[in-house]
Input
Amino acid sequence: MTPAPAFDYCIVGGGLQGCLLAHALAWHRPDATVLLLERGDTLCGNHTWSFHETDVAEQSRGWFDPLVVHRWPGYRVRFPAESRRVSIPYATITSDRLREATLSLADERAGSARGGRLVVRTGEPCEILSQTGVRLGGTAEVSCRAVIDCRGRAASAGLPSGAGYQTFIGHEYETVRHWPASEPTVMDVRADQADGFEFLYELPLGPDRVLLEYTRFHEEPACDETRAAQLISTRLAEAGAESAKLIRTEQ
Output
């Protein structure tokens, strides 16, 4: 007799996609057993993820909204001769919030009366054996009803012809004075396009906190740190925040 699978779902990859999926399953399939695997030491890495509020379906609001840490009623785009405010609500999820919420969800599900649970395992290599099985740490095999690969494109897989890379360097600052903008600028393309398509992205996270991110679309995966520093410094000077304290970097 074939033994029953240990889990209903095995999610491989504990980043944005994998963790959101774990929350969605807990909400829509409260009786499901889920194994979430991340080869890194912690879930979610070090990122800031933003989105238009209109991108989220109403039926997902119940589990999705508690993950949001910042919301704005709109945002701006800026070009050399044009500037426009877009009246679409904008929001952000951070790695810290998603990690905390996912680990809390696992704790809550451990005592679920409906039998559903979420098990999180980090810091172990994982090999996908089939659509219904994985191998952990090179030895232990785990069966499930479905394996869901959330690791993204493998670096060795290359890119299809004509495709390119989006790279970014983001610096989060604490400022002495209030940041002059209260809403994000999702694309500031006022600088000359030196190489590829590049722009500055600005998220005011509080009256004295801002994330400035240099983004570049190019055929090469490397990000130009010198160019990033130049554009970020220019924006800090424009805002009168040259003395801002760098508290975090992501890329």
User: Anything to note?
Assistant: Helices lie at 16-28, 61-64, 95-110, 225-238. The mean pLDDT is 91.
